[in-house]
User: What shape does this take?
Amino acid sequence: EPEVTQTPSHQVTQMGQEVILRCVPISNHLYFYWYRQILGQKVEFLVSFYNNEISEKSEIFDDQFSVERPDGSNFTLKIRSTKLEDSAMYFCASTWSGSGSLGETQYFGPGTRLLVL
Amino acid sequence: GDSVTQMEGPVTLSEEAFLTINCTYTATGYPSLFWYVQYPGEGLQLLLKATKADDKGSNKGFEATYRKETTSFHLEKGSVQVSDSAVYFCALRVRGNNRLAFGKGNQVVVIP
Assistant: This one.
């Protein structure tokens, strides 16, 4: 069964450093998402991406964050200058279609655990 | 805004016991409702869903009914197994939005 993959599974970085989290969505999917979960808190939506541009973003997704689909398979989340509060589990997800299909399942990857020291 | 509330704290129970995890929601529109499950070391997997009031989603012995009058979508299973040990997340999605709004999740531990 096709699945979303993410790398690395764990990343430790120093405050102020840039990190890039990588995701390979399911191959025929068109919509891509990033979510995060700070320890003990809810899974929070960050951004959705379609047709090579951001389609929706939350208030969390400020100028420190960016997303990119550099080639036909990868989808990346970059944090330009990490802060302690960026420490979280980051999940990538993908779907075939967007909000027109309410029941559309978002398929999630296993997550990248980011620790900022 | 759109939000989901799950009951506080982990749930520990014995094999073959009855499981209920409460989920209530607030939504500006007419949401679809989902339960996702996360097994250790894996991603979030869709367990079941319901897209309109009174729909019942079911999968792997789990059930949840979309109750518009009580804005709830409680998850139930009649007889749990050790393999059901996981974290369970309730979520909603409103028409016009791509985003899922999640609850905090509940750790379920089933003891043999």
Observations:
- The CA atoms of residues 89 and 113 of chain A lie 4 Å apart.
- The mean pLDDT of chain A is 91.
- The longest strand of chain A covers residues 43-50.
- The two ends of chain A are 37 Å apart (CA to CA).
